[in-house]
Specification:
10 helices; 198 residues; mainly alpha; 53% helix
């Protein structure tokens, strides 16, 4: 009888140990998978990182973030916010497209740059990439073209680029005269040095 009682006690003890271990394992699995009794296990972040190239392209086509990007965002360490810097050069807000309505005299234009190579108009302080593109659309590719502008041409360009007075304020014509003569300005030298570093 004593043997039966000891055997029963050992069985109960084993069942209790198994129940505790099962509860701990169930809890850990529930935390990792975040699944309830009737839910399918949720995809873990590591699973989201794995995907074929076709799946990633499909998500991009549907304007969704790729899984790797979503996972990176979810687990990204917050970075200090960078201060937004004011753009170094103000770009035109809108361009006047109807040339007949623009006040002033339209400057001399070219159909294409001479020898197929335009001057880097960004060497003129005040001309950024967007303004350079706008000037190229007009047929202005070279420093000597800008160097030859008169007051009426400057007025026309100011009105076309929709920022009155900027050409004179930033002395585009004076800078262009130096650059057309093969000389440098402090600004053009900085642009060239930056280009060499890239």
């Amino acid at each position: 009888m004593e043997n039966l009682l000891q055997l029963a006690m050992q069985m109960i003890l084993c069942l209790l140990i198994a129940a505790v271990i099962g509860a701990i394992i169930g809890y850990l699995l529930g935390r990792l998978g975040k699944c309830g009794p009737n839910e399918a296990p949720e995809e873990r972040p590591a699973d989201r990182l794995v995907g074929t190239a076709d799946e990633t392209e499909e998500k991009i086509r549907k304007h969704e973030k790729p899984a790797s990007e979503t996972a990176q965002t979810a687990f990204a360490i917050p970075q200090p916010k960078e201060e937004k810097r004011a753009p170094q050069q103000q770009e035109p807000q809108a361009l006047q497209k109807n040339f007949d309505d623009i006040e002033g005299e339209r400057p001399m234009m070219l159909a294409a740059p001479r020898n197929g190579i335009p001057d880097d108009l960004k060497e003129i302080s005040g001309i950024g990439l967007k303004i350079e593109d706008a000037l190229h659309e007009l047929g202005i590719f070279h420093f000597d073209q800008i160097a030859n502008w008169n007051e009426e041409n400057i007025r026309w360009i100011d009105n076309y680029l929709v920022f009155k007075g900027r050409v004179n304020r930033e002395n585009w014509v004076g800078q262009a005269k130096l650059l057309a003569a093969g000389r440098e300005t402090d600004f053009s030298q900085r642009v060239k040095n930056a280009r060499k570093k890239d």
